[in-house]
Amino acid sequence: MISRIDQGELKRRVALAAVDAVVPSLGTGAIVGVGTGSTTNHFIDALAKLKDRFEAAVSSSIASAERLAAHGVRVIDLNDAETIAVYVDGADEVEPGGALIKGGGGAHTREKIVAAAAERFICIVDESKEVDTLGVFGVPVEVVPMARRSVAGRLRALGGEVRERAGFVTDNGNAVLDLHGLTVADPDALEAQVNNLAGVVENGIFAANRPDLVLVGTPEGVRELVP
Ligand code: 5RP
């Protein structure tokens, strides 16, 4: 088990490695997609030093957009971006095949949208996020508020325990239910099954669209996992 301080340093180091990995994608007109969370915050801070080498960023959350803007990085709407050269984001769990659980910060809907729009998806994690099988973190599910109760019942029927994030509202104005107690043996199937429930906006399993590259921060250095 690594300490909090060690984990913060691993997040910083893997974020710096991600900046090195995106440099070949930069240039005139290049748009960079940016995720959300503490690991991504390190990425934003380092990427901002290269702000003269790309056109703009597309952000997956209001929080990241504000951080980028505070650094003087131009932030544009996804609808105004012709292409996104590369998208960089953290994760809550990553399994050996590269499927992820995201949404610890409740931003997974926009994260999935921007990741899907990007030509390249790079995921950055410290080694504590590596698991053999997804599920221990729980599966965040963004839900239209009027469907909280009905979706919670459907999720419970899958065999899990459902906890509502009390008082939390996503950037899209919705609620988040966390589905705990499931071993996600087939991430592709569960991602599709949960998204098929009426009232679900998006869930935090990233299996249909997996990252092209996962960078893992370890005390020995940054390891590459190519799913
Ligand atoms: C936010 C996310 C984050 O990427 C995920 O929670 C990891 O966060 P951190 O880098 O702070 O550990 O999915 O919705």
Walk me through this protein's architecture.
By secondary structure, this protein is of the alpha/beta class. The chain has helices at residues 4-22, 38-47, 62-70, 108-117, 148-157, 187-195; strands spanning 31-34, 56-59, 86-89, 93-94, 100-101, 121-126, 139-143, 161-164, 175-180, 200-203, 205-206, 213-218, 221-225. A 6-stranded mixed sheet has the order 2-1-3-6-12-13, sandwiched between helices. It has a 4-stranded antiparallel sheet with strand order 8-9-7-10. Helix 1 (4-22) packs across helix 2 (38-47). The protein is globular, with a radius of gyration of 17 Å. The site of ribulose-5-phosphate (5RP) has 18 residues, from helix 2 and helix 4.
Morphology: globular
Q: Give the N-to-C terminal Cα separation.
A: 25 Å
The arrangement of helices and strands along the chain is HEHEHEEEHEEHEEHEEEE
The share of residues in extended strands comes to: 15-25%
Parts with pLDDT < 50 across at least 5 consecutive residues: none
Q: How confident is the prediction overall: mean pLDDT?
A: 96
- The tally of beta strands, per DSSP, is 13
Bound ligands: ribulose-5-phosphate
Structural class: alpha/beta
Number of discrete helical segments: 6
Q: Summarize the amount of helix as a percent range.
A: 25-40%
Write down the Rg: 17 Å
Largest sheet: 6 strands, mixed
Order of the strands making up the biggest sheet: 2-1-3-6-12-13
Task: Name some characteristics of this structure.
single chain, 227 residues, alpha/beta, six-stranded mixed beta sheet, 6 helices, 13 strands, globular, binds ribulose-5-phosphate
